[in-house]
Amino acid sequence: MRFKKSLLYVLPCVVVGLSYAANPCRSEEESVAESKTEQTLKVAQVVNPESTAALQLAENKQKLNQPLRVELKATQTVDEAILAMAKAVKLDVEFEGLIGRKTFEEIYSKTLGTDVTLESQSFQDGLNDLSQQLFIHYSNEYQAEFKNMLYEYLAIPTEGGVLIANVGLRIFAPSEMSRKFYDVSFYSVQTDQQSPGAAELIDLLTNQIHVYWRFADRLFEPISGSIVPIEQADNDMDLRRQVSHLQYLPSVNILIITAPRSVHYEVETLFELIREAKREQPAPPIPQPQPTYNAG
């Protein structure tokens, strides 16, 4: 997964996007394989509905990580191109953002402008290649930094298929927002800034989303750099009620994020990178007792 530095601000928003179904032609072998998968999922659902969701999510992650090859035409729009990519890996697509908004149409209704053959190691790599093609073709339309945001796409695995998020679209178009709480007892801003994913995480938290740290000895404060702050915590009884349920956590710092699903996915991915780096760090040496000598 590729993360870029960009100064984004997620504004309050409301509704989620539209879902599209991909219906590829299947060979007999593919049909048999999919039938076996469906049977496995049905058995899992009887035993444990949650295991069904986990299996489906794992299967969709695997599809996103497989090599991708697709022929795209110059006359295809961006959303048609992404749907063709999803069809190639047999996944349904959901676009994050409110369909029908002018900004959404501005980003997804543009034509590719030239024929493109995508040959990528993963779905995300394919999106990155598509972004590069759009960046080149529309090089004169926007300033470089703004254009980077408009043509940066993320592929996020879901139980239903894949969620396509546009980094720039999060600024302008409404998306479904959710509030999540993260225990950050494992993370130290002072000591972990050089960890893999840490720089991207700090940029994401300080520049792109509404973030509040809960300190044990004081009220909520926004991290420096985040704007459009939430109302004072004292006036948000729902927030106070939910935070009180997290008092048992070992951390004195609780990370509270209100953002679209794609932001939560990025945060969780970056946190996992940091956790993995910590797991791979060699254990500190055990101090050995120093020998003592009796005088005399």
From TrEMBL:
Keyword Signal: yes
Keyword Signal belongs to the record: yes
Position of the signal peptide: 1-21
Alphabetized UniProt keyword annotations: Signal
Source organism phylogeny: Bacteria, Pseudomonadati, Planctomycetota, Planctomycetia, Planctomycetales
Domain of life: Bacteria
Protein name: Uncharacterized protein
